[in-house]
Amino acid sequence: MINSVGQSISSAIGANSLRDSGKTRASSPTGSATASTVSSSASPAARMAAQGAPVDMDRIAAIKSAIASGNYPVDANAIAERMVALDLPA
Questions:
Q1: What percent of the chain has pLDDT over 70?
Q2: Where is this region: Disordered (predicted)?
Q3: Rounded Cα gap, residues 13 and 21, in angstroms
Q4: What gap in Å lies between CA 24 and CA 58, rounded to an integer?
């Protein structure tokens, strides 16, 4: 659990940094540098992984707006169930 939480926190911090700079993972300097190091003979999956996940800035803006206006639904039970499921060994 500690490793997955640490990784989640690192991902969240990285996402916040990208959000604050207005960039997506694919357009960030790290993403583009990594993508350029992937050889042209690499599989499409490897190229996509090197570029990072696509970020839908319009969707993010809509969610932020819903949160700010108090209209974003949160299902605490679903969140708790998924957190427990992530921590259980397969």
A1: 54
A2: 13-51
A3: 12
A4: 12
Q: Is 74 left (phi over 0), alpha (psi -120 to 50) or beta?
A: beta
Q: Determine the Cα–Cα distance for residues 20 and 60; give it in Å rounded to an integer.
A: 12
Range of the domain at 43: 2-87
Distance CA 13, CA 7 (A): 10
Total domains in the chain come to: 1
Residues 6+ apart with CB under 8 A from 79: none
Report yes or no on whether pTM surpasses 0.70: no
Would you state the structure tokens that stand for residue 8, as one six-digit string?
Answer: 């989640």
pLDDT tens per residue, range 15-27: 656 666 665 554 4
In this prediction, residues 3-25 reach a mean pLDDT of: 58
Angle, CA 38 vertex, CA 33 and CA 43 arms, to 5°: 140
Residue 51 DSSP SS3:
helix
